[in-house]
Specification:
This protein has 675 residues and is an alpha+beta fold.
């Protein structure tokens, strides 16, 4: 079904003039990246006073917002980072601000070509929607709308769903890239198991390195205060991240572990540095400078020296089998260091010489045991999956309607031999289409979706964008498949809510005795040019200006009558009422002469494989009753059915099988010949 949808709608591209493809937007690259202004950055992050917006070197996406030399937040583009593409097939760009506390500071929609955001949803609605993301905690696991995320806006489900997905993915990428949240799943801070010193060493929770006096004497040769060689330890160094309770509680004991984690900040990873031997890993200069310059933590391009504000002294260890320590230091690692990823601790010893300084560097790598690393949070289901899950009842209803229609079309020979049954099924199904599919489920297809599909094929096709609206997707898939079997009438004649409304109101008008206007065939055929010209104009114009194309697409009354249920400005409502009024006298007036969607569906109608509608040699010669009764005037003067205009109402088949209407059957009956 999906393959058929793509095949049939791809044919619509052939209708686009080559000149249009060479226009300003034909196959164009996305617009240049839109940088936030200082005023926008300050507003999104709620910062008072002037700020600077700086683009980092080295290809790092996003901007850093700085005030007084201090980073106050980060801003990223959903188009640059998440590759957000809207329903129009064009980039949908939202600037997303992330605070240093790893929460969303704000969002700003800066670029889009979305139909409903242009001509259906007010600016205040969009502003309120994106503002609803402010304060979302990116450090919390998973993505769950129930935790305060704004719901997508009805009538703009696809566009606002893409905005939400882009904001969340961009914000998480920014926060991870700036070290505000761990790239993995974080540390297991709950599980505890008793362990000895040797068990922690064997597990890899503790790592150690040793520098002997002999090695130090060689490396620091020439020092004014020489190091005496010998078998003892110049430095014996151990390190461990103590956040996993199996490590921290066993090393420090419950009371000291709780105090250390609390003092150094819950959520900050704590690095324990322990040493014995002649050399101190702390020294004394830190009391004057506030920096432990003997120690450096290295992870990738990040180099960090512990500072006094992130330090706590520990007097002793709780483990009975732990070695005797000379110094124990606890340091809160900064956000730029991810404790779940490998890092290195460098300890430097320096001695003055007559010509300068001799140094010795002990390097101690650390990798947290996998047992203490939580698996990365499960990626949330794609937005389209949650949309389908949330709309299961709607999917079932549409599925039942399509199954019923399929049975009607396959059993058309049996049904059309029973005029009253056909009439009841026809009006009943059209009533269901208008009330349930249209007014209830908003299942109205539009030429705007054809434009979106064509542009998506040309600029990068993503099924996910179209799957966000289950009802619309199912209808398009069924329409595409139905065109292969029956032509465009599957949708236009049975599943179009506005088409159903026209036919129902005309049926009521005829019941009330309103005289119908017979349009002369010559004029009738020439008026077809209008809808085909409209379709070509809308599609071609979309390659020049999507906004202008959307304005021209307002020739469709579907948004006013079905999507917005007539709750719109009076000129739009008046236009719809005028079309319905014309339809009281000329059945399906809009479908016949003005509908660009019907014209677009008619173009690939030649792909129809089967010819289910029967004709007799006498049709159009001895009898022209079907021609005069045809709902949309799709039968010409010699009895041929034009598949580009036929809406598959089956009225001609009823007439052909009714011996009280069809002159051929009447004559045969009089002659006693079986039909």
């Amino acid at each position: 079904m999906i393959a058929a949808l793509r095949l049939v709608l791809s044919v619509l591209m052939l209708a686009v003039p080559l000149a249009a493809l060479a226009g300003p937007l034909g196959g164009e690259a996305p617009a240049l990246l839109r940088a936030p202004t200082a005023e926008e950055a300050a507003a999104m992050l709620q910062i008072d006073g002037p700020v600077q917006v700086l683009r980092e070197d080295g290809g790092v996406p996003g901007w850093t917002v700085v005030q007084g030399g201090t980073p106050r937040g980060y801003i990223g583009s959903t188009w640059e980072i998440a590759g957000s593409v809207g329903y129009s097939g064009r980039p949908l760009d939202v600037l997303v601000a992330v605070t240093p506390e790893a929460s969303i500071g704000g969002a700003l929609l800066v670029g889009h070509n979305e139909p409903v955001l242009t001509l259906g949803i007010s600016d205040s609605d969009i502003a309120a929607y994106v503002a609803g993301f402010r304060g979302y905690d990116l450090a919390a696991p998973g993505i769950d709308a129930a935790r305060g995320l704004p719901d997508v806006i009805s009538r703009a489900t696809v566009s606002t769903g893409v905005i939400r997905d882009g904001i969340l993915r961009t914000a998480r990428t920014l926060a991870t890239g700036r070290g505000l949240i761990p790239s993995g799943g974080g540390i297991d801070r709950l599980t505890f198991a008793p362990a000895t010193w040797d068990a922690l060493l064997a597990l890899g929770a503790l790592t150690e390195t040793r520098v002997t006096m002999d090695q130090a004497a060689r490396d620091l040769a020439g020092a004014r205060v020489p190091v005496s060689p010998g078998p003892g330890d110049f430095l014996h160094l151990w390190i461990a991240v103590i956040d996993p309770p199996t490590v921290g509680r066993n090393l420090l004991g419950q009371q000291d572990f709780t105090r250390a984690i609390g003092n150094l900040g819950a959520g900050s990873a704590v690095l324990a540095v322990m040493s014995s031997g002649l050399q101190s890993h702390r020294g004394t200069d830190w009391k004057r400078t506030g920096i432990f310059d003997r120690l450096t933590v290295v992870q990738g391009e990040t180099r960090w020296q512990p500072t006094e504000d992130r330090y706590q002294m520990q007097k002793k260890l709780a483990l009975a089998d732990a070695p005797q320590m000379k110094e124990i230091s606890l340091f809160a690692l900064p956000p730029g260091i991810d404790p779940t990823r490998p890092f290195i601790v460098e300890m430097q010893a320096a001695r003055a010489t007559s010509s300068g300084e001799a140094t010795l560097t002990a390097v101690l790598p650390y990798r947290m045991p996998q047992a203490f690393v939580l698996p990365p949070p499960a990626e949330p289901d794609p937005l389209w999956k949650s949309a389908w899950a949330a709309r299961t009842p709607q999917v079932i209803i549409v599925g039942l309607m399509l199954a019923t229609l399929t049975l009607i079309l396959f059993a058309q020979d049996w049904i059309t031999r029973r005029p009253r049954l056909w009439r009841g099924l026809r009006l009943g199904f059209l009533g269901t289409t208008f009330l349930v599919l249209g007014m209830g489920l908003n299942g109205q297809l539009s030429v705007v979706q054809v434009m979106a599909f064509v542009h998506s094929l040309l600029t990068g096709f993503h099924w996910e964008t179209f799957l966000i609206e289950p009802v619309i997707f199912i209808l398009w898939a069924f329409t595409a498949l139905g065109m292969l079997f029956w032509g465009r009438g599957v949708y236009c004649g049975w599943l179009c809510p506005f088409g159903a409304l026209q036919e129902l109101t005309n049926a009521a008008a005829q019941r009330l005795g309103l005289r119908q206007i017979a349009v002369p065939q010559a004029l009738h055929e020439r008026l077809w040019v209008i809808k085909y010209s409209l379709f070509m104009a809308i599609l071609a114009l979309s390659f020049y200006s999507m906004h202008e194309a959307l304005i021209l697409a307002e020739v469709e009354p579907f948004k006013t009558a079905i999507s917005l249920r007539f709750l719109r400005a009076w000129p739009f409502v008046l236009f719809v009422l005028a079309l319905l009024a014309a339809g009281l006298f000329i059945e399906r007036f809009y479908c016949r002469y003005l509908c660009p969607l019907g014209a677009g569906l008619a173009i690939p109608a030649k792909l129809k494989i089967f010819d289910w509608l029967k004709r007799r040699p006498q049709c159009g010669r001895e009898c022209r009753l079907c021609e005069t009764k045809c709902t949309v005037g799709a039968i010409d003067a010699i009895g041929r059915i034009n598949p580009n205009e036929c809406v598959l109402c089956l009225r001609c088949q009823v007439i052909m099988n009714d011996d009280s209407q069809c002159p051929v059957l009447k004559r045969r009956a009089r002659a006693g010949v079986a039909a």
